[in-house]
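Example (one chain per record):
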Amino acid sequence: MNITLTPITQEGKRAFSQLINLYNFNYDFTNYLNDDIPENGFFYGDADYYLSNEKMQNFFVRVDGKIAGYVIIAEGGDRYLKDTQAHNIDEFFITRKYRCNGVGRFAATMAFEMHKGKWEVCQMQDNIIAQQFWISVINEYTKGDYQKHGTPDDEMVGIVFDNSKH
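Predicted structure:
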């Protein structure tokens, strides 16, 4: 299995828009947000926002050349780090076909390796599956050198680490 991260360009905008609609605080998150399908059939998704934002790097996750999801790396740790030089996983989505077989773990590690320094990765409080995934990935990646942030009363919880020594 060949897993790569390829930059999302304007040519990939339509596919990216479709993926955003499947994930981005939408269908994948209806369990946590209690949202209903809007009358127009689209939850949310402005590919232009991501593609034009200079503080974001957008990548398709590909498996053997096929789109398997996307990862958006943003500048700045805005929730717990309050550090404009840090990086964060703004969005991370792997389609169901490619989940639970190492694709997400590999893609996350590739994203971390693209930028050395401080990282912040946050998840919704009720999204236990995402929290378990990220703790597992980051624990393995950092060999346990990370900090968890947030309380049960917070909307989001986060993981902070520094990979500049790795």
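Caption: The chain has five helices and seven strands.
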